[in-house]
Write the structure tokens for this entry.
Amino acid sequence: MIISIDDSAGFCWGVVKTIDKVEEVLQNSTDEQVYVLGDIIHNPREIERLEAKGLKTITHSQLQEIPKEKSKVIIRAHGEPPSTFKMADDLGLNVVDATCPLVQALQNRIKKAYDMGYQIVVYGKKDHAEVIGISGVCNGECIVVKSVEEALEKIDFSRKTMLFSQTTMEKQAFYEIKEALENKVKDFIDGGEINEVFIAKNTLCKYVYGREDKLQEFAANNDIVLFVAGKNSSNGKSLYHVCLQSNPKTYFIEDIDEINYEWLAGVEKVGITGATSTPQWYMEKVKEKLENKLSKELVEV
Ligand code: SF4
């Protein structure tokens, strides 16, 4: 059996930056407790690794309870709304911002469009940390939609509108929403230019959709695929579906113990891949586990 790890898998550029920053802060804080507000990234195994080095994950309500002396609070890769920064500032806390630069850039673009009077529409998940941050930069006034139907129902077509996307959503669905809104807007404008009243910005992250072609090829070249990711990872869900389209025998696992060895029956090639928040070291552990299992079976035979 050949077991291989996808070359294009592993942390994306933004997660590498965030994790590097956390490691640096932990190393330079021998005398201070380092906190992170919410999960640093959506991967429990990487969170456990960092927590073993001293990182403590807290909720927003716990922010008010931590001592302001000898503490550092890291803002995670998904970013936070301005209200969180203000609260931390009012509490006199030492904040280290590890927001992914691409998420920061998205917040800035949305804030600018909002200040220009656009109705803001975001294709995303309203409870996702990144969307909560986005919503905060436009006073909670953005309309978050997950489908064409929801967009057509919620948007006020009498207002000039700008459509954005949460960075980790699916490309095809974004363009479906864009097309549906354009068609609807055309019905409303009389002789005017569509791009004066409706602008769509593809703000999907290139580190997610840029992986799609290679991922499809990787999935198709293996008999089965183990897709390793945190269950809460948005890009994990989206890339898993990309994999599944190329290879119906793609299995989503968060933990090594979720592997069902019956999946391997009669299989020659196993591929291991994951989300942009799946650490390389964990995919290697999955590979090692499979190899050990196979060599044990050979000895028993
Ligand atoms: S997927 Fe993109 S937006 Fe999200 S952390 Fe990685 S680089 Fe940043």
Q: What stands out?
A: The chain has a mean pLDDT of 93. The chain has three domains: 2-10+209-300, 13-100, 102-166+170-203. The pocket of iron/sulfur cluster is lined by residues 12-15, 77, 100, 102-103, 167-168, 205, 207-208, 235, 276 (CB under 6 Å). The two ends are 16 Å apart (CA to CA).
